[in-house]
Design a protein that fits this description.
Elements lengths: L3 H40 L4 E4 L12 E4 L8 E6 L7 H11 L6 E2 L3 E5 L3 E6 L5 E5 H5 L10 H15 L7 E14 L4 E14 L7 E3 L3 E7 L2 E8 L9 E4 L3 H9 L4 E4 L6 E4 L1 E8 L8 E2 L1 E7 L2 E6 L6 E4 L16
Parallel strand pairs: 1-20, 2-15, 10-16
Antiparallel strand pairs: 3-13, 3-17, 4-5, 5-6, 6-7, 7-12, 8-9, 9-11, 11-12, 14-19, 16-18, 18-19
């Protein structure tokens, strides 16, 4: 048996051990919490600036937007910085020379411009996009009598772009579009759709994700077998992403659309209800003349006679800039369908 002094000593030591243990545990917990806050600060996405899409694309937003397909969103989505083109006067001169535009190159704050008797060249300083047109482009009035096959047009377009130094890195052939016009036929008292022009399109994705908006798109236009125009709306993104940003819920995206914070295009502008049968997360490409700093994710909702696009990022990580919106033709439903 222990004496009273021994018992008192043991009790004092035990209390000291308990206090020390509590102190150590409290210190460790405090230290872990401090590390967690620090990690959160490091991983918090940098606030970025994107352009507002403006208001409704056509007509009014339908009262009911019915989601008819399952969709599982990712927690995060990569955001990229848009490259600024490194345009040198010598590069512009070479392009003009290759295209046979021999007049002096003029420039202002927005573009380089060269014009000869039968050709016109404009290069956008903000994006490096090109508009090249010929006299035939301006004056064509007769329908095409003969047309090449899709493979022949594709090869002609690729050969022309490579020869003139206009082919874009990572460009992917995306198809051919035939421009038609209605020609009155007195025999039937109807208008017959006749082919006037063929456009061979090239596009690109970003990290396996498609784009919507006005690009990236590079189009070579043919009248017969001759190239009459080349037009591009093309922005490049940095190879390394800025970071992975959180994605809002689909339901919240629909609310944004109904509040007028996205674009909705409908064949029937008075439609009060639409069904969404396809949902994608895509990157959005702004129009020419608009400064775009980042490639960010957007919800693209499509259905019979309706296309809609709205930012997929939460408001607390973006700052919206207003600009005058021009129609993004490739997200407008085809009126012929």
């Amino acid at each position: 048996m222990f004496s009273k002094k021994t018992k008192l000593l043991i009790g004092t030591l035990s209390l000291a051990v308990v206090i020390t243990t509590i102190t150590v545990i409290s210190f460790n917990q405090s230290d872990t919490s401090s590390n967690k806050v620090s990690a959160d600060n490091i991983n918090r996405p940098e606030k970025i600036s994107i352009n507002s899409l403006g208001h409704v694309g056509s007509g009014k937003v339908p009262d009911k937007i019915n989601i008819k397909v399952d969709f599982t969103k990712p927690e995060n989505f990569k955001v990229y910085k848009i490259k600024k083109p490194q345009l040198q006067k010598s590069d512009i001169e070479n392009i003009a020379k290759n295209l046979g535009v021999v007049d002096e190159i003029k420039e202002d704050d927005k573009k380089y411009h060269a014009k000869s008797v039968d050709k016109n060249l404009i290069i956008d300083k903000l994006t490096g996009s090109i508009t090249y047109t010929t006299k035939e482009w301006e004056n064509e009035s007769e329908p095409l009598k003969n047309m090449n096959s899709e493979q022949e047009y594709r090869k002609l377009a690729e050969d022309f772009l490579l020869e003139k130094g206009l082919m874009k890195k990572d460009a992917i052939f995306s198809g051919i579009k035939v421009d038609t016009r209605g020609i009155y036929n007195p025999a039937t008292d109807k208008y017959d759709e006749m082919p006037y022009q063929v456009g061979v399109e090239f596009r690109r994705d970003l990290d396996g994700v498609t784009w919507t908006g006005t690009g990236p798109k590079l189009t070579v236009y043919f009248y017969g077998s001759g190239v009459v125009a080349v037009k591009s709306v093309w922005r490049e993104a940095e190879e390394k992403e800025v970071g992975a940003y959180p994605v809002i819920e689909l339901a919240d995206a629909v609310i944004k659309l109904k509040e007028g914070n996205g674009l909705v295009f409908t064949k029937d502008e008075s439609a009060s209800e639409v069904d969404i049968t396809k949902i994608e997360l895509v990157y959005y490409h702004d129009s020419l003349g608009v400064e775009q700093e980042y490639a960010t994710p957007y919800y693209l909702l499509t259905g019979e006679g309706v296309n809609a696009v709205v930012s997929a990022l939460p408001d607390n990580v973006v700052e919206f800039k207003n600009h005058e919106m021009t129609n993004s033709s490739n997200i407008v439903p085809d009126k012929k369908q």
